[in-house]
Specification:
3 strands, 3-stranded antiparallel sheet
């Protein structure tokens, strides 16, 4: 059975640790990252365009996590746009 074009499996979640990264997220937020890197895209960016932390803690994206209040609102908006077939602004740059 083929997987749908869009699925939660295509994304990973970055969880902040006790020491926040100075160059990436400076607040306790969960960020989303595309699991499959695109050629010509930024491999070091979250869906909202933020830099990845130096040592990110990765986890799988589960449906319930989309309702988590710690989830970055920009990452959630980008995910919804991709769900509707739009491309990320970071994938084409």
């Amino acid at each position: 059975m083929p997987r749908p074009v869009w699925s939660l499996f295509g994304y990973k979640v970055i969880e902040p640790d006790e020491q926040l990264d100075l160059f990436a997220c400076r607040e306790v937020r969960l960020h989303l990252v595309a699991r499959q890197l695109e050629l010509g895209g930024f491999a070091d960016r979250t869906l909202c365009g933020g830099l990845l932390p130096a040592q990110p803690r990765w986890s799988n994206l589960e449906q319930g996590l989309l309702r988590d209040r710690r989830l970055c609102t920009n990452c959630r908006s980008t995910l919804e746009a991709q769900r509707q077939g739009q491309h990320s602004v970071w994938s084409g740059v």
